[in-house]
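Per-record layout

source: Sphingobium phenoxybenzoativorans
name: CoA transferase
length: 408
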Amino acid sequence: MAALLNGLRILEIGHFVAAPFCTRLLGDLGADIIKIEPLDGDPVRQWGAQIDGKSLWWSMHGRNKRSITLNLKKPEAREIILGLVASCDAVVENFRPGQLAKLGLGPDVLRGVRPDLVMAHISGFGQDGPYRDRAAFGVVGEAVGGLRYLTNHRPGESDLPPVRVGVSIGDSLAGLYAAFGVMAALWERDRSGRPSDSGAASPHSLDVALSEAVFSMMEGMLPEYGALGKVKQPTGGGIATAAPSNAYPTADGNWMLIAANSEPLFAKLAMLMGKPELIGDPRYVSNQTRVENAAQLDAVISDWSSGFNSEDLADKLVAADIPACKAYTAADCAADPQFRYRDMVRAVDDPQFADPVLQAGIVPRVGSSAGSIRWPGPPLGAHTEEILVGMLGMHPTEVAKLRAEGVI
């Protein structure tokens, strides 16, 4: 079966995480991704653990993309971009607002060679507004969007600063929204058959802000504040609206996530713990009363859970049909039979490493297809000649000249 997005071509003028994550999602589903990199490469090539100076993360982050190096400050690079855009369906970029226009590559210029081009702009705060020109990374988007305040223990329990989620979640959320937006804009384009225009109001122009991507995920935080003046507070490992639902200690030093926050599930948990009297206890008789007394209830469950190692405890909870799982480490994820069965842990051959690199599989699964990893993150500029000669029809001597002049 042909790849879902086979025939779709997207130009990525991005770096770090947000735009490259967007295009990786589309590339995983078969789109032809041409990644423009500066001569010294995307900074992510130097991030994370490395072997012989090569990033293991890059092997997954850059997969299914063709890499071409360009010095965008050179006028010759601008002409190459325009030549590529002529055969692309979309451009995804995450420079500061207005930066591409300063390089002579604004939407009006790009749509001069491809009138129906879809453009996805990803930035910290969006393409307009008072914060438009502020510097921002994912962590700033997470702070402005309200997430960083909530990733903390309950008020009064700790003086340590709010913790990071653990990955660049703000960037990835923005990239995910951008991928969805690209496909929506392409649908509109192909359905209507209308050319685009250079204005921000064009249905083919996407404006994705990291801060807004995070903010949109904050569940009832804003409605509750607007109606009740309630400022949502951190809850540590628990949930403010349901109990019991938390991380509980085990005898072998791990944490077990247990979500028994419905009446039938709480009854099952009480029986499993050998404490049937909890079922009729006025403090725990409903979800509302359990939330009000969550600290006491969590202490009871913690006392019980700490008497078992994580494997035995998980077996008991699964057998009782109670939603639960140990807090997985990377090793647990890699060995998990469900991930393995669904091809979510893949050993990918990467010529830059002696051994295959474990990579996360492809989401979403479409039909019976689990997607395709056609190649890992390529070496810097690996496809430069292929693209310039094969797509733009340049002669190898022209390519050599551009390289000598520091254009590529």
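summary: The chain has a mean pLDDT of 95. The radius of gyration is 25 Å.
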